[in-house]
Amino acid sequence: MRRTGRYIFFAILGLVLLFIFAPIITIVVFSFNVDKFASLPWKGFTLAWYSNLLLDANIIEALKKSIIVSISVALSSCVLGFLGAYALYRRPFKLQNVYLAFMISPLAVPWVILGLALAVFLTRLDMEGSLVSVWISHTVFAAPFAMLIIRARMSGLDSRFEEASWDLGANRLMAIWYVVIPLTLPGIIAAFLLTFTISFDEVIIAWFVCGFEETLPVKIYGMIRSGINPTINAIGSIIFIFTMSAAVLSQILIRKPRDS
Amino acid sequence: MKIRLLRSEALRNRLDLMALLPISGWEVFFYLIPLLFLLIISFWTSKDYDLIPTWSLSNYQEVFSNPLFRKAFLWSVWITIATLLITISVAYPFAYGLAFVVPKKYRQVILIAIVAPFWTNYLVRVYSWQLIIGGNGIISQSLIALGLIDTPLQILYTHVATSIGLLHFLITVMILNLYSTLDNIDRSLIEAASDLGAGPFRCFFWIIFPLSVPGLAIGTMFVFIFAFTDFIAPSVLGGGTKPVFSQMIVDAAHWNANYPMASALSAVMLLAISAFLLLLFRIVKGIIKG
Asked: Rounded to two decimals, what is the model's pTM?
């Protein structure tokens, strides 16, 4: 009984890992295939799709926009999230759970609906169709996310460190800058990387509000809709490697035990 | 002296809570108000791509009477339930094995292997399934080469394809949720039960399963909301012949510029999600109490 159970588990483990990695391996492998269609048998090795990609000014432009937006979203989310987490850390208040539930709710509202709501609202304000509107929209769900990550890290922080620095003559801002921020830095960096990644990947909200200022995922979505194009495989492979390293790095930072 | 100290204390309190203002302001102005506005315009109408503020229920009447919307809704429900059942039946044994069978030193490696792709671009991952399950894709071509089938597979641009794309993302979510609760179960409870003569099956049904319900519930919640509302998998893998509910919303808004209609559809979608969550909450409460 024990042994058969173990075999069944290892079979499931293997199948799930195969299922999870199949698309990633496929796209990387076929990004080097000569054939325009991703079909067997293998036609030969080429770097043509990668050079296509580098020569395509539209894609490079979209990539630039995506990086600008994602960095802005990550920065604003970390600032807003840090301030929020710090307030909750210093002064817990009544109804804090209600407040937190409200702050988490943007993560539960379907992105189609969030995108639609923001498109309608920003159009009313004449703010739609720009990178600023993508930045505003992404920060809506990224900031609470950053707040939760930073708050989790801060909860392990002994409040006496900060109080000691006040006694030694530091004012509030100095104490935050020299004591609180350094001690929560791993959480802040993890929040930065994760919000960057989510914003960099997000399609549907960006698609609703970006107008003609297409970010990279919106551009890729357009390419997919217009049919098979092996350049997508090359972009996909690069994005996979890029975001996977950012994600693994942030996982390590979150998991690392407290160094204080 | 004491009074001055108190005053600065009160000031400090206020300053601390001021740090909450920027993020709260952002969420109220760019999240709460837009959502409420969306709800309001679902009662308006649209004419020549313009919003007309007339209060009527016509959009809702249309949502409930138009067979196209009803079909899309049912297809969404159907895909969601199928995806949910498959997710649970694959993720549960996986998480169980990871928590109780795999030696501790390998768990971290397996977890990172599962989580790493989870953070990569969802759109590209969904797209790459086109290469695998398409008519000219790997599976189809291999099966033809092996002589098992004559004509290319017809999976791509069906609801099965949509479900595969969703599963690829959601199995990881479910595994992570289940693993974290299963791993937290106090092992001495299981030992106590087996010392008292409970076999492996009774151990599972009386101890392990009830204690894993919270993780299962949160995983189910996430899977339901995501599968029910995702637009990427249906539009990239499912195609446009049998659109699901989220595609209806995007069609109404983006292609027909009928925002009041899209808003009414969104409201119905949110209502359906709330109804499901309420039902789930009741079931979970019943299991935990019973």
From this structure: 0.89
